Automatic annotation (TrEMBL):
MF terms (GO), sorted A to Z: cytokine activity; frizzled binding
Gene Ontology terms: cellular component: extracellular space
Any single Pfam family the record assigns to this protein: wnt
Family under the similarity heading: Belongs to the Wnt family.
BP-aspect Gene Ontology terms: canonical Wnt signaling pathway; cell fate commitment; hepatocyte proliferation; neuron differentiation; swim bladder development
General function of this protein: Ligand for members of the frizzled family of seven transmembrane receptors.
Residues forming coiled coils: none
Protein name (database record): Protein Wnt
Gene3D superfamilies to which the protein is assigned, alphabetical: 3.30.2460.20
Swiss-Prot/TrEMBL keywords: Developmental protein, Disulfide bond, Extracellular matrix, Glycoprotein, Lipoprotein, Secreted, Signal, Wnt signaling pathway
Signal peptide: 1-24
Length: 340
């Protein structure tokens, strides 16, 4: 009912919605599994924000799956499990480090965008971006809407980190570190976007705003951090990390950190949250991680011939249409054999 009645195209029922929203938020917040008390409290205070965060989840999950689509671990989620990632998150692996970072980055991104789009009562554009300022090309006036990333980072920190603040063990420290690395990654990709004014677009006067880049930039960045993630152990005071191996560097604030080696994700293993690679598509000629050799873990693959339809023989007609034929093509696809 919330989506129906709270849509902006129904402004007259909006007030009623707000009222029902407050009642509904108790029900909603009590029914999200896995929240700690502090998070439930924040949820009840900010039901709109929670809905935005919930709606934004599919975006960071999609990004995670994009980054790992050709890997043995492909950021798969368990639709039947009430825990989205199954038992995976119980481990302290590099993959889990990525999931924490990309999800907390996702919360920041979603929130800042919702603020800018005027979807939330509690925030809007960055109020500090007013007056004038300068960049390398000279002075400009702040205008338009700058994404209020600082606000989104603060809320994200309060909300997402609340869970880890209850504990003070190695795993909590790991999560806090990766959450922060994720939040910082969003802030890194803010662009100054400007509009030119002045005589025939001479750009003698500019108005500018700070806008977040596409979430893909954050995803790409965190993927690189995943590759360079540092295995750590907690120091003797339990306050920070030391590198787990003598030849590893100490992690910086932007690095992802993990505690445990990863399973190989080759076979289905409930305990480690691995679904195995049986049935996954692979590339017969690639020597990389998407190649059948690596992807199928030496178990071999099945070949099947499927028919694919593509647009072909496209002709451009003046003006302005393109006409194509449908071409049917037989292509071989390779899928990993399952374990015996
Ligand atoms: C398979 O891998 C080869 C070599 O890396 C690449 O050239 C080719 O485009 C890939 N094929 C598909 C279908 O992705």
């Amino acid at each position: 009912w919330n989506r129906w009645c709270c849509s902006p195209s129904r402004p007259r029922v909006l007030l009623l919605c707000r009222y029902m929203g407050t009642l509904g938020s108790q029900v909603m917040c009590d029914n999200i599994p896995g929240l700690v008390n502090k998070q439930r409290q924040l949820c009840r205070q900010h039901p709109q924000v929670m809905q935005a965060i919930g709606a934004g989840m599919k975006d960071w999950i999609t990004e995670c799956q994009h980054q790992f689509h050709s890997h043995r671990w492909n950021c798969n989620t368990m639709t039947r499990d009430h825990n989205l990632f199954g038992r995976l998150l119980l481990r302290s692996s590099r993959e889990v480090a990525f999931v924490y970072a990309v999800s907390s980055a996702g919360v920041v991104y979603t929130l800042a965008r919702a603020c800018s789009q005027g979807e939330l009562d509690s925030c809007s554009c960055d109020p500090s971006k007013k007056g004038s300022s300068r960049d390398s090309r000279g002075s400009f006036a702040w205008g338009g809407c700058s994404d209020h990333v600082e606000h989104a980072m603060r809320f994200s920190q309060t909300f997402v980190d609340a869970k880890e603040r209850k504990e003070r063990d190695a795993r909590a420290l790991m999560n806090l570190h990766n959450n922060r690395a994720g939040r910082k990654a969003v802030k890194r990709f803010m662009n100054l976007e400007c509009k030119c004014h002045g005589v025939s677009g001479s750009c003698s006067v500019r108005t500018c705003w700070l806008a977040m880049a596409d979430f893909r930039r954050t995803g790409d960045h965190l993927r690189k951090r995943y590759n360079a993630a540092v295995q750590v152990a907690v120091n003797q005071y339990g306050t920070g990390f030391t590198a787990a191996h003598a030849h590893f560097k100490r992690p910086s604030k932007n690095d992802l950190v993990y505690l445990e080696d990863s399973p190989d994700y080759c076979i289905r293993d409930h305990e480690s949250g691995s679904v195995g690679t049986g049935g996954r598509l692979c590339n017969r000629t690639s020597r990389g991680v998407d190649g059948c050799e690596v992807m199928c873990c030496g178990r071999g693959y099945d070949t099947s011939r499927v028919s694919q339809t593509t647009k072909c023989e496209c002709k451009f007609h003046w003006c302005c249409a393109v006409h194509c034929r449908d071409c049917h093509q037989q292509v071989d696809v390779y899928t990993c054999k399952g374990q015996r």
